[in-house]
Amino acid sequence: MPRALAVDTRLRAVSLAAGRAGVRAGMTIPEARARCAELDVRPWDDHALSDAMLAATTALLGASPQVTPAAGTPGMWWVGATGFEALGGEAQLVHTLLAIAQQWHPGARVAVADSCVAARAATWAPLPDHGARTHTNALPRHATIIPPGGCARYLAPAPLGLVPMDDELRDALQMLGLRTVGALATLDAGDVEQRWGNTGLVAWRLARGDDPRRPGLVRVEAVRSASVELPSAVESAEPVLFVLRAQLQRLLHECVRDGRAAAAVAITLVLDAGRQYPIEEIGSEMRGHVHVPETSDDATHALSPAATTPAHHDTPPELLRVNKAAASLLGIPQRTITREVRPARPLARLEPLFDQCRALLERWNIPAPIIGVTVSIPATAPLAADQGDLLVPSWRDAAMNAEAVLARLRATLDPDNRGDVVVHPEAHDTHRPEDTGTWANADAITLAAAPMPAVLATSASPQAVLRLLAAPEPVDVEAPHGAPGAVWWRGRRLDVATAHGPERLSGDWWRGDAYARDYWRCTADHDGELLLYQTEDGWFVQGWYD
Questions:
Q1: Following DSSP, what letter does each residue of 459-495 receive, concatenated?
Q2: What share of the chain is helix, strand, coil (3-state, %, to 5)?
Q3: String of DSSP letters for 159-174
Q4: First to last CA, the chain
Q5: Which residues are bridge partners to 335 per DSSP?
Q6: What CA–CA distance (Å, rounded) separates 217 from 333?
Q7: Which of 337, 411, 396, 401 is nearest to 371 (CA)?
């Protein structure tokens, strides 16, 4: 099935089937469907793709320490294939990579070559008769191994579309009658550079298998965690906050030293299980965060496959996990509860992170005395280099103070981190009224750094502002002569004194939610101005003018 991902009206990525049908990234949706009528176009989702890319990259690290997602090509990775002679060689690596990649796509393809350009070409259009070979053990389907030094020979019959280059350069080469990679490779380097400059010379080198791109060595981050055993069991949050602040400050210093910022902070409380508090008393907000650590002989026997624990016989399996970091604190039966704080943006400053942790502890219903605390930073991001005026020591205090206030609001009102509590308006360039503005998650630091919007000139007479409903509401309209004469809305009949329209508004025909509406601006007696529109499904009121 040919598929593609689109941003607005242009394709961002295409599948192999779509590429073989002539569809290319950068095409408009109508242009692509003109070449492939059955093309399945879906919207580009940055968050879903980022999560999937991260999961796949992490899995591929189990096969090779050198893994790099291909820039600008979601779904493609460069993987280091050197140094595997003692582990079964390239053939064994191919089997391992395919087993991992097929967890996401059954038709995943793997190719091994000296250069990235040849490996990519082999995954798109394998040409086993032009230099590719297999080892003694037969390679699986969708796998190709190009022998050392064979990239140029393998690429020679491939079409120019498999070599990265500008569209203008590719069109110029095709107009000169050059259709294959080998034809480009036979040209003289001086002639290529004189005619097309450095862009042409880079493409010429790629055609000869000379590709400087290499997968990078992934650095595995050290575990950032600190555990503290309290001298005695406590039931209030104050001693925990004292310990939490000191340990969080130490972890943040380590992050700053490594050029990282905390994207999440996990707090694990070790509870005294001697009082046998039932799990049901923890509260519905804690479900899914209860751990039964391996800390005693009884717990060890409970986790073995040959026995069960009566105390947790009726507990769902998803509620039982092992937290070994907290379990190492004490050798007595204990229960741990873990919650995470996720700031709106990665932070390396103690105060805003500590404020969010304190807000979490203040509303946390703890069912038993606390005997230990574990603080960890499970996710980090590159440390941002904020700029400011050296002559004003408090240059960012206002923005940071605002962000701290917003962080406390999020921690209190948005425990699930949906991002719809603290928002700011964003304008969009579209003709559809309901899409001209949206609410986006607010970040005080980013908003403070943004340029001030231009001040619009105001007229002497006040201008009416359109107030949109959350969703258009269907209404009954009396229109004996085509124009609305009366509107039945929310159980009331509104007489229309004047009606201006119709104004035809249509668009987005290239998407699945195309619209075609006839808008009317109606003045109702004693009720102001209403915005109505008519479609094939009837009449709707979308808002009013204030």
A1: PSSPPP-EEEEEEEEEEEEE-TTSS--EEEETTEEEE
A2: 35, 25, 40
A3: BGGGS---HHHHHHHH
A4: 50
A5: 271
A6: 42
A7: 337
Determine the residue type at 155.
L
**Measured distance CA(33)–CA(31) in Å, rounded:** 6
| The pair of three-digit structure tokens given for residue 79, joined into one six-digit string | 């993987």
**477: which 2 tokens?**
């309209």
Give the position of tokens 């390239």: 90
User: Taking the mean position of all CA atoms in its chain, how far away is CA 287?
Assistant: 26
Read off φ and ψ for residue 213, nearest 5 degrees. -70, 140
Partners of 317 in the beta sheet?
Answer: none
Any idea which of 24-38, 288-302, 380-394 has the lowest mean pLDDT?
A: 288-302
Angle 46-60/89-101 helices, nearest 10 degrees?
150
- Given the structure tokens 């961002």, which residue do they identify? 12
CA distance 274 to 126: 65
3-state SS class at 439: strand
φ, ψ (nearest 5 deg) of residue 359: -60, -35
Higher-confidence residue of 132 and 120: namely 120
Residue 137 CB partners (closer than 8 Å, separation 6+) = 91
| pLDDT tens for each residue of 310-339 | 333 343 333 333 344 334 444 445 688 888
The radius of gyration computed from the CA coordinates of the chain, to the nearest angstrom, equals: 31
DSSP alpha helix (H) spans, 259-323:
297-303
Q: Under DSSP, is residue 4 helix (H, G, I), strand (E, B) or coil?
A: strand
Other Cβ atoms within 10 Å of 205 Cβ, number: 18
Q: Read off φ and ψ for residue 133, nearest 5 degrees.
A: -140, 165
Looking only at the bridges linking them, the beta strands covering 437-441 and 528-535 are unpaired
Q: Are strands 143-145 and 110-112 parallel, antiparallel or unpaired?
A: parallel
Q: Dihedrals φ, ψ of 284, to 5°?
A: -65, -25
Cβ neighbours around 42 below 10 Å, total: 10
CB burial of residue 12 (10 Å; 0-12, 13-18, 19+)? middle
Record the pTM.
Answer: 0.43
Residue in 270, 289, 264, 276 with CA at minimum distance from that of residue 339: 289
Contact 110, 94 (CB under 8 A): yes
- pLDDT for 417 equals 67
Record the tokens describing residue 46, joined without a space.
Answer: 């940055």
Give one DSSP letter per residue of 281-323, joined into a string: GG-GGGTT-EE--S-SHHHHHHHSTT---GGGTTS-GGG----
Asked whether the beta carbons of 143 and 111 are under 8 A apart, the reply is yes
**Tally of CB atoms within 10 A around 129:** 7
